[in-house]
Design goal:
Largest sheet of chain B: 8 strands, mixed
Shape of chain A: globular
Number of domains of chain A: 2
Number of strands of chain A: 16
Distance between the termini of chain A: 30 Å
CATH superfamily of the largest domain in chain A: Metal-dependent hydrolases
Number of helices of chain A: 11
Oligomer: heterodimer
Helix content of chain B: 10-25%
Helix content of chain A: 25-40%
């Protein structure tokens, strides 16, 4: 059994306080030990004195591998906009493992992402959690399905009501499409003929996977909460831009939220109240907060910049790191595998030249399952 | 008279004063700067508490005020995309002084912004430089108008018009439209019927103003330089994603570049190679280079974040700070007024709680022409001027140091 020991770094396990001059011991792609550890004589040693060692970032809301970035329409597979409810489509089938966005992720220390259909449809499709390395989408999968994507607010209204003159044309219509679909899933009888979309929605009703709803405006956020309560299902609120305006209600509802993207301006009416104070305010209110890039909307290469700005605007540094690692892992249902440096978890970790929130910090090496997947040019 | 004392002053043009003072006269101009400054008895004193003072930041490429924040279609006035030549439209007529983006820009220490019409049209209109004063009327924001005529090459005009089966549908068509407009302006006889498109281009043909060309692909950049040579006009490049591929030729042509934003999605095909190699390569070739947000592509307040990340990629901190202060001032032709902390210049100043080139550093206050327009904790609100109150431990703002009085220096 080949062992790898990273020694001397400042280690941020996330699940416990940072330790200076600590060791991370890895074997067979898993973490064996963290802390003041005797280095076995047969271990390969990486001297990381002066460096910072963190778990790989987990970005819970991205379109990595399926959105296309400047290649033109042939590469865009984000929204199956041909109908308003498309639960039968799977992000997995559009992932291009050779897409440049995976290199971006690895070079920025992001080792796990949830990648998902866009927010054009009230019911969008199947989401999947993947590691950011592999030749086939299937071998990258960490959890599938990881949720059913849905969307409230402007995007479905514009795409369907405005562009195609079909339901939904209003927020009422958006909620109705989602309700109707969940009701159909409840009544679904596979013996009368399979329906792939309803099969997935049925798993939402059975609470095997959450419904993950795009919601920016406060009323959309609370519509998501209303629907989740009606159907007694698990929910995550995606974007949650006006969450700070209803922080108490969110905390009381108890659903996790995923915040972002926060660097790209306020192009839409529903993002008018975008602020980097949102993460800190929701942290203080006791909401389970994760940060996202929504890559390519904020390039995943700059995930850490959003974390740093959340800290600048009031979030605790520990809270921001947790919102980029363990919190999203919990929210995605993969915290047994990733999100912190603990014995038994996957050896997904990153060596940084400095704390990732310092402007000049660089990723020196990224590891997935104990293997180097990115190394900085010296 | 206002005296800012006990500051670490990054003058930009003349080095760093580790501990010094700046005097601001009642006209909002810098009256003195140095390690040893005699503070008149009657001067109002702002103690910087050892914090870092820089010139107000300047963004050489932005659509601030034209693309209103959070208003969607109703508030987007950046592109008069109805004709490929709209040289006669003026950005000043689209700037909305109540756009929340303007108030927010001050929270990031930005005090001067080059507002440029969008890139849909081959000739997009006249740009201007604004000061982020507290004002209700766009005219009261003007620092310089116009700064040049905006042009656009490449994908944007093609996508806007080619899709409608109108010229231009190709890069050839774009260049032809630009040439024809310049030829028409050369032959323009104001004695006959007035033509505002031609009139807008006259100062460009006379060499008084540059053509401000939004171009990204290297061949589009070269097309801009080619047309510039043909007509003997000055070219300033905006965006210029692939400028690093032809940096030597840009240097040779003497063009300046408002480069970026580099902290941005890849977006279109012509912007796929986005990254911080751009300002680095341009500066290595001696090209005057400003770092920009292209707001709203990157939000206006994060200009210093762009510069901070450029340092990670190889710029010196001095180069990076210059690229968001004095260099853009020179590109906009306003370096006599802004861009450095020097006697006689406008007192556009920013006090930072820490290193301005760090991601987590907050602005303590922002000043335009001697008036404080933002104090940390203010939320960028626009209700009157605020007097910054700094407590000894470094906190600032209304909650930290007592009530905020009015400061009115004008």
């Amino acid at each position: 059994m080949t062992k790898l020991a990273i020694t001397g770094a400042t280690v941020y396990p996330i699940s416990s306080p940072p330790m200076e001059g600590a060791t991370l011991l890895v074997a067979e792609g898993k973490i064996l030990a963290v802390g003041r550890v005797e280095v076995p004589s047969d271990a390969e040693v990486v001297d990381a004195r002066g460096l910072h060692l963190l778990p790989g970032f987990v970005d819970p809301h991205t379109h990595v591998g399926l959105w296309g970035e400047g290649e033109g329409p042939p590469a865009y597979d984000g929204n199956e906009w041909t109908a308003n409810a498309t639960a039968q489509v799977r992000a997995l089938d559009a992932i291009n493992p050779f897409h440049i966005s995976f290199e971006d992720a690895r070079s920025a220390g992001v080792t796990t992402v949830q990648t998902l259909p866009g927010s054009g449809n009230p019911i969008g499709g199947e989401m999947v959690v993947i590691k950011t390395r592999g030749r086939t989408a299937d071998e990258m999968v960490l959890r599938r399905p990881s949720g059913l994507k849905g969307a409230l607010g402007e995007n479905p209204k514009r795409l369907h009501g405005q562009n195609h003159k079909r339901m939904p044309a209003s927020r009422m219509g958006v909620a109705a499409v989602i309700r109707q679909y969940l009701i159909r899933a409840g009544e679904y009888n596979p013996e009368k003929g399979r329906n792939l979309g309803l099969e997935l929605a049925r798993r939402v009703l059975d609470r095997e996977i959450p419904l993950r709803l795009h919601a920016h405006r406060a009323d959309d956020i609370l519509t998501a909460v209303r629907i989740a309560r009606e159907f007694d299902i698990d929910l995550s609120i995606e974007h949650c831009t006006e969450g700070w305006m209803v922080a108490d209600a969110l905390a009381a509802a108890g659903y996790p939220v995923t915040l972002g993207p926060m660097l790209g301006g306020r192009s839409k009416v529903e993002t008018a109240n975008l602020t980097f104070r949102n993460p800190g305010n929701l942290e203080k209110a006791g909401v389970h907060v994760s940060l996202m890039t929504d890559h390519p909307f904020v390039p995943i290469a700059h995930h850490r910049v959003q974390g740093a700005l959340a800290v600048r605007e009031g979030m605790s540094e520990a809270g921001a790191l947790r919102a980029m690692t363990l919190n999203p892992a919990e929210m995605l249902g993969v915290a047994d595998r990733v999100g912190s440096l603990e014995p038994g978890k996957d050896a997904d970790f990153v060596l940084w030249s400095d704390h990732p929130f310092r402007a000049r910090a660089r990723v020196l090496a990224t590891y997935i399952d104990g293997r180097v997947v990115y190394e900085a040019k010296s | 008279m206002l005296a800012i004392i006990n500051a670490r002053i990054m003058t930009v043009a003349d080095g760093v004063i580790e501990s010094g003072a700046v005097l601001v006269d009642d006209a909002g101009k810098i009256a003195a700067v140095g390690a040893q400054v005699d503070v008149p008895d009657e001067a109002e004193v702002l103690d910087a508490g050892g914090r870092t003072l820089t010139p107000g930041l300047i963004d050489a490429f932005s659509h601030l005020g034209l693309v209103n924040e959070g208003l969607g279609w109703a508030g987007n006035d950046a592109d008069e995309a109805t004709d490929p030549n709209t040289a006669h439209v003026r950005a000043v007529d689209g700037v909305y002084p109540f756009d929340r983006g303007i108030a927010e820009a001050r929270t990031g220490g930005v005090t001067t912004v080059h507002v440029v019409p969008g890139g849909s049209n081959v000739l997009a209109g006249q740009a201007l430089a604004i000061k982020l004063r507290r004002a209700a009327v766009a005219d009261d924001l003007i620092l310089r108008h116009p700064t040049g005529v905006a042009a656009s090459l490449g994908e944007r005009p093609k996508a806007t018009y080619g899709g409608e089966k109108r010229m231009p549908a190709t890069r050839m068509g774009i260049a032809a439209i630009l040439r024809e407009a310049l030829v028409k302006a050369q032959q323009y006889d104001p004695g006959k019927e007035r033509d505002l498109r031609c009139e807008a281009l006259l100062p460009v043909l006379r060499g008084e103003l540059p053509l401000l060309v939004q171009a990204h692909r290297a061949d589009d950049i070269i097309t801009a330089l080619r047309i510039g040579r043909e007509f003997g006009i000055r070219i300033t490049l905006l965006g210029a994603t692939e400028a690093h591929l032809v940096a030597d030729l840009i240097a040779e042509a003497g063009a300046a570049v408002a480069a970026g934003p580099s902290l941005a999605p890849r977006g279109r095909q012509e912007t796929r190679d986005v990254g911080f190699h751009l300002p680095l390569t341009l500066l290595r070739h001696g090209v005057p280079t400003a770092i920009v947000t292209g707001h709203p592509q990157l939000d206006q307040p994060y200009l210093n974040i762009e510069a901070a990340l450029a340092v990670r990629e190889g710029l010196t901190p001095d180069q990076a700070l210059r690229a968001i202060t004095l260099t853009p001032a020179e590109i906009l032709g306003v370096a006599d007024r802004v861009g450095s902390i020097a006697v006689g210049k406008d007192a556009d100043l920013v006090l930072w709680h820490g290193d301005p080139l760090e991601l987590t550093t907050r602005v303590a206050w922002t000043m335009v022409e001697g008036r404080v327009v933002y104090v940390d904790g203010d939320d960028g609100d626009r209700d009157g001027d605020r007097r910054p109150v700094l407590s000894a431990d470094g906190d600032t703002g209304p909650g930290a140091g007592g009530p905020c009085g009015e400061v009115d220096r004008r």
